Each structure stands twice: as C-alpha cells, then as structure tokens.
C-alpha cells in the first residue's frame, strides 16, 4: 500500500532538516498584478538615469571586473 501524502511530505522534510536545511517562507511581488510591468519599467528607467548621472560608475565597474578576473588595471 502506498505511503499517504502527508507522511511522505513529513519524511522528506525530516530528511532535509537532517541534511542541515530549514524551511523559510519568502514573499515576492505578484507578477500577475495589474501595473506590475509598468512599475518595473519605471524603476528600470530610474536606475538607468542614475547610472548615466554617475560618471565614475563605469570605471569602477570595469576595475571591479578586472579585479575579479585577476587582471591588472594599470
């Protein structure tokens, strides 16, 4: 006879906890909500404008990338 669903879930969760994991609940924005795409676009434009206003940003990002790759930026 197959194991009931609740028992299988309990067994799986016990195995995950034994592996050092714990359950967490994460709330994320509802992408189906009206206006979500428009709000994403609004925020994206704000970030892009802020990036353009920061003249040193690209140099900093390029230097950080070189540093990650172990290259010299001299």
Write the layout of secondary structure elements.
Blueprint: H1 5-18, H2 36-53, H3 57-68
Structural description of this entry:
- By secondary structure, the chain is mainly alpha-helical.
- It has three helices and no strands.
Helix content: 55-70%
Overall average residue pLDDT = 92
The radius of gyration over CA amounts to 23 Å
Strand content: under 5%
N→C terminal distance: 70 Å
Could you give a short account of the major beta sheet?
A: none
Number of strand elements: 0
Question: Gist?
Answer:
With 74 residues, the chain is mainly alpha-helical. The protein has helices spanning 5-18, 36-53, 57-68.
Structural features:
74 residues, mainly alpha, 3 helices
């Amino acid at each position: 006879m197959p194991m009931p669903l609740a028992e299988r879930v309990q067994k799986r969760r016990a195995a995950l906890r034994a592996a050092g994991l714990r359950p967490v609940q994460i709330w994320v924005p509802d992408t189906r909500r009206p206006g979500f795409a428009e709000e994403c676009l609004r925020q994206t434009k704000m970030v892009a404008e802020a990036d353009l206003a920061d003249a040193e940003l690209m140099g900093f990002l390029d230097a950080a990338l070189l540093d990650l790759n172990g290259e010299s930026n001299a």
